Recover the amino acids of this structure.
């Protein structure tokens, strides 16, 4: 019983390793895409925020 459990665990680890090794490029590209999308979104948000600040400054400047 104990040996069976150990064998199952070993098989699971091996299968996981095999799947991971096979899909490493996929996982890496997914992570890279996720990170890149995150960076782009943050930058876009910053740009939009800066533009709105710029508009506010222009409005204040025009009102004087």
């Amino acid at each position: 019983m104990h040996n069976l459990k150990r064998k199952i665990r070993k098989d699971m680890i091996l299968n996981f390793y095999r799947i991971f090794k096979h899909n490493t490029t996929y996982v890496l590209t997914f992570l890279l895409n996720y990170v890149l999308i995150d960076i782009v979104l943050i930058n876009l948000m910053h740009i939009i925020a800066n533009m709105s600040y710029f508009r506010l400054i222009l409005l204040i400047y025009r009102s004087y």
User: Anything to note?
Assistant: The two ends are 85 Å apart (CA to CA).
